[in-house]
Amino acid sequence: MLEYFEAGTGLKLPMWLSYISRVVIATCLTAVNLSGLEVVGVASLVVLVLVLIPFVLLALAGVDEMEPSAWGQWASNASYARLLHNVLWNFNGFDATSTMTGEVVTPHKTIPRALLMSTCLVILTYLIPVLVVTALDPDWQSYDDGHYTEVATHSVGAVLTAVFSASATLSCAGMYMAELASDSYQLSGMAEMGLVPRVFRQRSSGGDTPFVAISASYFFIVLLLMLPFSQLLEIDNWLYSASLILELGALVRLRYKIPVPGRPPGVFNIPISTKGLVGMYLPTLLLAGFSIVWCHWFTHALCLTICVFGVLGRFGMVWFKARHPLL
Q: What pTM, to 2 d.p., does this model score?
């Protein structure tokens, strides 16, 4: 978020001031999550509209300068590992919907429709900006954080640059709130199932939000803010890919353990055989595997350490609950 601010204003904040600014922004956005899930949902919809408006304006203002032939250019020296991490990071998180299923009315009908609609919207939110900007500035090798604002400045002027900076900031804010909501509700759900300490399932009396889980997520976010974005992206993709492989493995296992014909009526089932299910998700598994392999050694070391502590913590929870069942 600060990168877009710096690109739009030309300012370069010192490292300590940049970290403090990130903490302040994270604190303000966390306060929105504490207000309730409905507030986060409405804010995300508003952000979606506001993010696309600048690109529509840019396309209308710069239609005479566009070079659609740039869309067919092939990058000979592209960093495909970095491309993979960016694409995966931009499109991950759909499985996080399951963490908030309990907050949805008729989830077996609502969630499949919501996933289909959100997939189309997410594709549009990335496809429209990429098509517009690359047609206006085919020199993709000069692209960096905040480059969209530079294209807006050259094509239209400083006024649209300010709009772009505000739009990019709102986009980052929306992603932060959505990610924090899914992570905190997942932690709260795990507490309700007894997988983590029960303190994480406590909810506020006002907004009915899992404030302990949100606070815990916020604490780790503040620690990770000290790392550069590229490192955070790799860490997030490594952990997400590992969890995705685990989730798909659990899906296949449940197909054999609880066959579809034996499930209660009205429960949503994926209308495909188990072998077809494996074939459908095979590209996803390969993508997740490649995204883990192509990470830096520091990312491997940190994420493996997190996983080890997680497994040890789980065994510690089982041992503690066996001796203190009421806690």
A: 0.73
